[in-house]
Amino acid sequence: MLFERHHPGATIAWLLAIALMPFIGVPLYFLIGGKIKINP
After folding, report:
1. pLDDT the model gives residue 18
2. Under a CB-based contact definition with an 8 Å cutoff, are residues 30 and 1 in contact?
3. 35 pLDDT band (50/70/90 cuts)?
4. Averaged over 24-34, what is the pLDDT?
5. Which secondary-structure segment (H or E) carries 12?
6. Can you point out the beta strands (E) in 1-40?
7. Number of CB atoms found within 10 A of residue 27's CB
8. Are the C-beta atoms of residues 5 and 40 closer than 8 Å to each other?
9. Is residue 38's pLDDT more than 70?
């Protein structure tokens, strides 16, 4: 999950969400973060 290719902006957004709101960001990442894929 961590090594999949994602858009850099999406990665930064997830990192900010997890850093600023860890109790919300972490569950959201595991619920929907791994399912969102951006094709280059």
Report:
1. 75
2. no
3. low
4. 74
5. helix 8-20
6. none
7. 11
8. yes
9. no
The helix (H) or strand (E) run that includes residue 22 is helix 22-28
CA distances to 10, 12, 21, 22, 23 from 5, rounded to whole Å, are: 10, 13, 24, 23, 25
Amino acid identity, position 15: L
Q: Which two tokens mark 33?
A: 């973060």
CA distance 6 to 13: 11
d(CA 20, CA 7): 20
Q: Read off the pLDDT band of 2 (50, 70, 90).
A: low
